[in-house]
From TrEMBL, chain A:
The lineage of its organism: Bacteria, Bacillati, Actinomycetota, Actinomycetes, Streptosporangiales. This is Sugar ABC transporter permease. It comes from Nonomuraea rhodomycinica. SUPFAM superfamilies: MetI-like. It holds the Pfam family BPD_transp_1. Keywords: Cell membrane, Membrane, Transmembrane, Transmembrane helix, Transport. Residues 75-290 form the ABC transmembrane type-1 domain. InterPro entries: MetI-like (IPR000515), MetI-like_sf (IPR035906), UgpAE/MalFG_permease (IPR050809). GO terms for biological process: transmembrane transport.
């Protein structure tokens, strides 16, 4: 009797989950496997029908993609953009969460205001930044003594140091748009912290910065580590933001924008796929390194 | 100074901080507290300015003539209010059509995603079936997997099948990308529905499907709302797949795609496009704040467990 009930339950479970599995399989998993095959074939949109799914495998795409002069700078850009964007968005989100931790009049409104950049459509906010930073009629440039072409100028000097203007602007955009994401998670964690630890610290005479350093921060490391992984993964392969702001020009080309250009304007599917695979592999390598070194160290700190 | 930074926490007994403070009026504690009292409102003000100002600027630009912007780019308030920009963007630039397309895509994605993920989430929450432990891994993988990799085979496939330019293909992709997350969100909620209620329904003669329909769903309304709005926001805001699939057919453009395509042209005044940005942003902001508490709780539910 119990066996048949169990069997029945198993069958019902599979039946109920099957639509979910079918659509993920057909629209996500199988296409991904195909993307891997495409990376090893010499295919363009014109000859795709004559090439079979299998066979004709070659490493030519990878050799071609890796030897292109633009690839390595794009990979470096991707890395700089991702690391800086991730770190800044988490740091700013942490400050915002700490500032909004205690109740005050109008906190709900401030919270709402902080969340808008993250919620608003990326196309709208990218266009907004473009307009605000426009050298001719952008409002930001009316505040400066000399207009700066933030989004179309690859290099500029700031206090005598040469800086990559457009890349820094794109990173600032990233921090501005995604700090609310970190803010939400850190604030939720902050509000769930038990009060007694901090009260004990106050009794022991700990100053606010000491409480932050020795009581609050140790309890936040895990959520910060999780946020770092999430933001790194999302930013590393991000396409929209850079494409909309600069189109990949002015020294801001990241690998995902290159993939898009290979796919559409060059119509080279094989090379686009190869490049995307390289990007994904590099991402996995970085994640593995991160988990190996940082996650282990963090666990020890918590102990 | 007897009090250094380190022993403050380690000290068990020792001197009482209150008396120490009385003894030294400018103790570190008092300095820090005073500094924070000043800094905190300042920091909050900066955050509000940095996040709210750009959107205020967006609205202000959308209600003025382009001549005014070029003559006086530094002014925030328009001298002469006009709504012609909105009339222009909605009719002449075709944003009404784009909004219709976006609405179709978003509503269809929400409906089908819920239809698929409700039974899926119920199965994961309640039933032990072959592989029910492994599905989490699949969902996490789909959630984290880069869209740009997926874009290549789907672009090729849709080109071969002649699905480019049709909203149907786009809806299919949005469903596939959101279903894993919505199954996860709903599952968390379904698990909080007491089993005894379901068992009572079963004893009263409900089949499994009618138990879901009559007992679980009415109890899960907030979660359904939050999940639906999450899908709506993704579908309304999405850009990459809309660009890849729809760009050649202007009558199929979504609002996001329409704004991004028109933003490059010189003939359309920036103020008109700003009106388009407002039209694109407003529905999402309204939807979000109507449901903000539901959404953020669902999104950060995992964080509280630590």
């Amino acid at each position: 009797m119990s066996l048949t009930l169990q069997k029945q339950e198993g069958r019902a479970g599979l039946a109920l989950i099957s639509p979910t599995l079918v659509i993920t399989l057909v629209v996500v998993v199988l296409p991904l496997l195909w993307a891997v095959m495409l990376a090893f074939q010499d295919v363009r949109l014109i000859n795709i029908r004559s090439k079979g799914l299998f066979g004709g495998y070659t490493l030519e795409n990878f050799r071609y993609v890796l030897s292109e002069p633009g690839f390595w700078p794009a990979l470096v850009n991707t890395l700089v953009y991702t690391v800086a964007g991730t770190a800044l968005s988490i740091a700013v989100g942490l400050v915002a969460a700490l500032a909004l931790r205690d109740r005050f009049k109008g906190r709900t409104l401030v919270r709402a205001s902080i969340l808008i950049p993250y919620v608003a459509p990326v196309v709208a906010v990218a266009f907004l930044w473009e307009t605000m930073l426009n050298p001719q009629y952008g409002i930001v440039n009316t505040w400066l003594s000399q207009p700066i072409a933030f989004l179309s100028q690859a290099k500029g000097t700031f206090l005598g140091v040469e800086v990559p203007v457009a890349l820094l602007t794109v990173i600032a955009f990233e921090a501005w748009r995604y700090f609310p994401f970190a803010f939400l998670f850190i604030l939720a964690r902050l509000q769930a912290l038990p009060a007694d630890l901090e009260e004990a610290a106050v009794v022991d005479g700990a100053t606010p910065t000491q409480r932050f350093r020795y009581v609050i921060m140790p309890q936040l490391w895990r959520i910060v580590a999780l946020l770092a992984v999430l933001r790194f993964v999302f930013t590393f392969t991000k396409f929209d933001d850079v494409y909309l702001l600069t189109g990949g020009g002015a020294g801001t080309e990241v690998v995902s924008v290159r993939v898009y250009n290979f796919l559409t304007s060059r119509d080279d599917i094989g090379a686009a796929a190869a490049q995307a695979i390289v990007l994904a592999v590099v991402l996995v390598v970085f994640l593995a390194l991160y988990l190996r070194f940082f996650a282990g160290g963090e666990r020890e700190q918590n102990r | 100074m007897s009090r250094t930074a380190e022993p403050a926490l380690a000290a068990g007994g020792g001197e009482r901080p209150a008396s120490a403070r009385r003894g030294r009026p400018m103790s570190r504690d008092r300095v820090e507290r005073a500094a924070l009292r000043v800094l905190k409102p300042l920091v909050i003000a900066v955050f509000v300015a940095v996040t709210a100002f750009p959107f205020l600027y967006m609205v202000m630009l959308s209600v003025r003539d382009i001549q005014e912007l070029i003559l006086d780019p530094g002014s925030l308030w328009p001298r002469r209010l006009t709504l012609d920009t909105y009339a222009d963007v909605l009719t002449r630039q075709g944003f009404l059509t784009f909004m219709r397309n976006s609405a179709i895509v978003a509503v269809a994605s929400v409906a089908v995603t819920l239809l698929i993920s409700i039974p899926g989430a119920y199965a994961v929450a309640r039933l032990r079936f072959f592989g029910h432990r492994q599905v989490h891994f699949l969902f996490l993988a789909v959630y984290l997997f880069p869209a740009i990799v997926l874009a290549i085979p789907l672009f090729v496939l849709f080109t071969m099948m002649g699905l480019r330019g049709s909203l149907f293909g786009l809806i299919l992709v949005y469903i596939a990308q959101t279903v894993p997350v919505t199954v996860y969100m709903l599952r968390n909620y379904f698990e909080t529905v007491p089993r005894s209620v379901e068992e009572a329904a079963a004893i009263d003669g409900c089949t499994r499907l009618s138990t879901i329909w009559r007992v679980v769903l009415p109890l899960s309304k907030p979660a359904l709302m939050a999940t639906g709005l999450y899908v709506f926001m993704i579908a309304w805001n999405e850009f990459l797949f809309a660009l890849l699939f729809l760009v050649e057919r202007r009558e199929s453009w979504t609002v996001s795609l329409g704004l991004s395509q028109l933003a490059g042209s010189i003939e359309i005044p920036t103020t008109v496009l700003m009106a388009g940005s407002v039209v694109l942003t407003l529905p999402i902001v309204i939807v979000f704040f109507a449901s903000e508490r539901l959404l953020t709780e669902g999104l950060t539910a995992g964080a509280e467990k630590g």
